[in-house]
Amino acid sequence: MSNDAHIIGIGQTPIAKRGGYDGRPELDLAAEAIRAAAADAGLQVDAIDGLVTYAIDLPGEDTYGAVLLQEVLGLPNLRHGSIVYTSGGGGACGAVALAASAVETGRATNVAVFRSVVQSEQRYGRYNPQRPFYNWTAPYGAFAPPVFYALTMRRHMELYGTTSEQLGHVAVTFRNHANRNPSARFFSQPLSMEDYLASRMIAEPYRLFDCCVESEGAAALIVTTEERARDSASRPVRVLAAEQGAGGGFGSGPIGWNNMPIEIYETGGIGDLADRLFARAGVNRENIDVAQIYDAFTGMVIVALEDYGFCARGEGGHFVEGGRIGLGGALPINTSGGHLSEGYMHGANLVLEAVRQIRGTSTAQVTDAELAFVSSVSGLTPTSALILAS
């Protein structure tokens, strides 16, 4: 990457509860979000000549694609189309990296990155006999993400003394941010530490409010070069660095595709991704003004803070205490409410919130934010991360 790529437009449909868009295909929502992103950029939709998305599971399971979207959007000439295949939500930042590469190398001029989710069309909650590893996990009740991720967090607590209250700080802080965001699923629904601790247990140590809020909707952004970004109707945001990666021996992490080494079991398994990312960006962790960290579960945030070097291994629990991750703190995180309180869009909404922070238009704005960090999923690999700049 040459740091020439800029995000010039963002768009998002309303975030609905699971089943809220029943009857509307993911393709339709994706097109709506892309049109909104083009309008935000002051760009005619037919000027888009690249489409990038990412899958969260096996290849071929998503119900939309570049060919179909080209017809729906009426794009006269598609020069680039690609998809990032990862486990879980590891591709949100990687998709931006692909789009940046496309415009920087001249393969496309305006690339739309998108993610669309309609849960009623998906396979979640359905046993899949084609995955034989479930034969060794399902009999013990381990057949869903909360259970798998609870195991890794339980080990983190045993090793480092991480507490339920520290997990609660993550949930409560993100709810506070969502209470400022009218688009959030939990807007105007406060959450106290007492509420958090009183919520029912899902998979120890994870309670109800440790888990993301399953949602439906779509999000999109437009990537172009610096030269073309000068004509954008909205403030352009530079893609300073974006990387993908996975550490050896991790496989698909807690979902159980292999037995990874116990030494890295409670980590996100990102290998040297963090060091490559910050080296490419030419900045230090201390320079980051705001972060958007993938939070399917509260523990993911604690682990990611350690993985990406914002604190030492085992200190993530202490890092989130004392208001450090809220507005006015050392590192405000998930200022739109994140997956826990805004809505679960597999990371796409986190990238859009990072753009808003750099533009200065967030509902929970960090003063003079110039550098925003975004991470995709922890504990499933390969994953990705990026840094945006003013």
From TrEMBL:
Listed InterPro entries: Thiolase, Thiolase-like, Thiolase_C_2
GO MF, any single term: acetyl-CoA C-acyltransferase activity
Transmembrane segments: none
Domain Thiolase C-terminal per the UniProt entry, residue ranges: 274-385
Protein name (Swiss-Prot/TrEMBL): Thiolase C-terminal domain-containing protein
Organism the protein comes from: Sneathiella litorea
Phylogenetic classification of the source organism: Bacteria, Pseudomonadati, Pseudomonadota, Alphaproteobacteria, Sneathiellales
